[in-house]
Amino acid sequence: MKPKSKAMGRVACLLSASIASLLRGAGSFDEHPYSLSASFKTPMDTLAGLTDWAQGINYVYAITTVVVAIVFLAVSIPLVYAIRRFRVSDEEWGTLVPPKQVHGNAILEFTWTIIPVILLLFIAVPTWQIIFRQPEKHQVPANAMRIEVIGHQWWWEFRYPELGITTANELHLPEKTPVYFEISSADVIHSFWVPQFGGKMDALPGKGAENHLFFTTPVLQHPEKKGGEYYQGQCAELCGLSHALMRFEAVLHEKAEFERWATVFHNPPVVQTDLEKKGEQVFMQCMSCHTIEKTPSADLEKQLLAMTPPAHKAGPNLTDFGSRRMIAAGTRHNTAENFHDWVHDPSSIKPGSKMVSLGLPQADIEAVAAYLRYSTAKTY
Amino acid sequence: MAKCLPNTGVISWITTVDHKRIGIMYAVSAFFFLLCGGIEALLMRTQLAIPNNTLVTAGTFNSLVTMHGTTMIFLFVMPLSAAFFNFLTPLMIGAPDVAFPRMNALSYWIFLFGGLLLNFSFVVRLAPDGGWFNYANLTGKAFSPSHAIDFWVFGVQILGLASLIAAINFLVTILNMRCKGMTLLKMPIFIWTTLVTQVLLILALPVITVALVMMTFDRTFGTGFFDPAGGGQVIMWQHFFWIFGHPEVYILILPAMGIVSEILPTFSRKPLFGYTVMVYSSCAIGFLGFAVWAHHMFTTGLGPWAQALFSAATMLIAVPTGVKIFNWISTLWGGQIRFTTAMLFAMSFIAMFTFGGLSGVMHSSPPIDSQHQDTYFVVAHFHYVLYGGAVMALFGGIFYWFPKVFGYYLHEGMGKAQFWLYMLGFNLTFFPMHFLGMQGMPRRVFTYAGDQGWNLWNLVATSGSYVTALGGVMFVVNIVYTMATKKKKAPADCWDGRTLEWSLASPPPEYNFAVDPEVKNLDDWWHQKYTHDGRRLTPRYQPDVDPATKHLPHPSFWPIILAAGLEIVAIGFFFDEVGHYISVAGLVVTLLATYGWIFEEA
């Protein structure tokens, strides 16, 4: 823990820096993290909705904002006027003849009971429109792609039953496709949320407590770029120590690219160098919790699931780990250094992490890093 | 034993059953807990001032979040409101005391012990960390094995008991002890909001009491009400919690609305505009408050019909609330407005509460709420309502009635400085949180990455919280200065008031009214001072009499002993081996105290 005075010093320093950046003008310093432009266009911007579901929300939101702004003016203008117009000096007050003792006015009071009701209808009707547009379970179109979302302390599991894919922390989606999420939790309550794709939905533990979310994925904003577009998601319900660090990324692909991703996903790891071979051996220590398709870890998983009751592995599936942009549930970039820090002491990066430090020697960490970061990388 | 107890000194305060003294004790305790809650808030804001800060750990932060919310609601706003109920209710309705004076003392001591138990968790480094709504199953034994959550469960259970006892007391007092002529629709509006608040407490608290018992059973005896592993449902806890939790919001705001409705007429020298409609709207708010709980759960998968109905009910609450706001403005209209500190706080209440109310209307729409739920937008919303609203009104009430309670005016200059520091600091802290929420910053995160675009607004918010803290310091200085110098003595009717308490000396004598008052009008005290065309009359202030001639309830030791017994019962649950002996011992103390109480001459 750092001393408080040092933190305060940093605060003061940053405060002056941010004021300076504000003075320089918004827009001109896009990259400065304290500039106004950076503070209004962000990875989790709820106003930058892209899906039909998100845009439906923003349609209600826009109407509501107008209604609310009208009411705010209708209150604040007479309030400010009355306060200024009818103010009396402290000396005069109490010596004057009291004003007319008005007890009320039935017509006025009736008016400002009725007008809010009418204004509220402007919010209520579009609200109900959007609520009922979200289909219930039995109304989901048959062609929708089904994805199971499972929240864990503190990472996300994504399963594509029709494609036989299980992955973690990176949600791959084809563009312009109806998708249907079945959201649940393996432990406590989490909340699944990609702001640019729309509102959140809680992930509840327990049988029959699955929640559903349906939307059509948006078109790619920059179709010329290869490798997909990244959108950020985050758990939105307090779920324990590392709730703040339970992020994930949604990757939107051009349809053919998504098909390729789903195909190469099943390729076995390509182990080439000696270091990678050593890493493959070291990974044997990891397979009680982690699975990589087409390796012994996958066989172990099958055996565990065949037991009664089925035993689930505690950690994320790592089949396409090498292709993931981030590690540790979307909180660190997938670099050798971050990988080392994570494996060396997971709870220093993610407090309370269920992954324990295995006390691997430096050489083993480097080997398993090579195996996971290169052998499991898929090109699509 | 009671008769020979002294009239001054510590013992006199411990054994007092005087509603005025109990009111003062409630207020002092509430401000002590405000200090705790305030420090927690400052620590959180300092942690979040910059991205990736390491001032506090994730665990500490979760405890700060939980304890800040719990403290500000259960240990600051509620007891400070109770302080006003205590001090003012008998004075405003012309009664010698509350209906059950010893029960009044009992509820105070139970509250104090409950608050201390809750905060004792910091001393043993087991502060609760499940958030102020303590959602199952994160707070079950499997995911929170330590006693941290037990501090919350038992603390809130004890505090609920205190509020329930007090609520019954005030309900009976208001219904039975009004002076001659004071029909229900001649009661001061503050008494009306107090009455509605007590009804809400009596109806809402049993729900959380039962839910807390179930959670205690889950945690202590391994039942599975809220645990999917035991066949229970996590959503059940949320329904229970919010069936209590939403009326609780009105329990926090209605007393504040009552205070504002007293201050605005006095300093406008006009009666409250539309008194009857204000009464009905308070009742309507209280009634509708029970039909909207699921709007806290719009993202839990309620389904479209529940969403549609609960959103409609929620929007409906805006109607009586809007009526209140326009009636307050109309009270100011055409008046003679004096800018006292109390009046500044009351007028700011209208503006800040409206603002918070309007962002609340936004959340009443489930689609919008699905984006805003659990983000800083919600944090901004409820701080505008509860801080810009309730807390500003409560401070207004402090400045308004302080001269009545202690006989001296608070320093107006310092008061206004505090007001402006609060306004500036409050808006700096919470206005940018709307942006943070819209930019997707979730609540209850102990840190955030630097590339999220949340840096600037967090820094602004943190700087605002320090400005607010300065305002708090100003308030403490003001109190100390006023009581140390005792410069400006307050007369009985120091603000040219409208209600009965202003006919009493400042501070009022122990027996309250020497002559039983009789009222003919709403705002009777005003009508004793002025004719309809504004000519002055000579009002009859309450005379002084020899206190020995008045029958007063005797002081008693039993309330504090009974409260201590209940506390010991709860403490037993924290010990694994000898716990049940401790609990049984506490039960024995409770029963003995009850026995002693019953046979004591009241």
Describe the structure.
The complex is a heterodimer of chains A (380) and B (602). Chain A is an alpha+beta fold. Chain A has three domains: 44-84 and 104-133; 144-264, Cupredoxins -  blue copper proteins (Immunoglobulin-like, Sandwich); 274-375, Cupredoxins -  blue copper proteins (Immunoglobulin-like, Sandwich). Chain A has ten helices and twelve strands. Chain A has helices spanning 4-23, 36-40, 52-85, 106-133, 255-264, 274-282, 296-306, 336-344, 346-349, 362-375, and strands spanning 145-152, 155-160, 165-168, 170-174, 178-185, 190-192, 201-203, 211-216, 229-234, 247-253, 326-327, 332-333. In chain A, the strands form four sheets. Chain A has a five-stranded mixed sheet with strand order 3-2-1-5-8, with no helix packed on it. The longest helix of chain A is centred in the first third of the chain and has 34 residues, at 52-85. The two termini of chain A are 44 Å apart. The model of chain A is unreliable at 1-5 and 23-29 (pLDDT under 50). Chain B has 602 residues and is mainly α. Chain B has two domains: 26-553, Cytochrome c oxidase-like, subunit I domain (Cytochrome C Oxidase, Chain A, Up-down Bundle); 554-602. In chain B, 65% of the residues lie in helices and 0% in strands. In chain B, helix 6 packs antiparallel against helix 7 and helix 10 (341-363) packs parallel to helix 13. The mean pLDDT of chain B is 95. Classes of the chains: A alpha+beta (380), B mainly alpha (602).
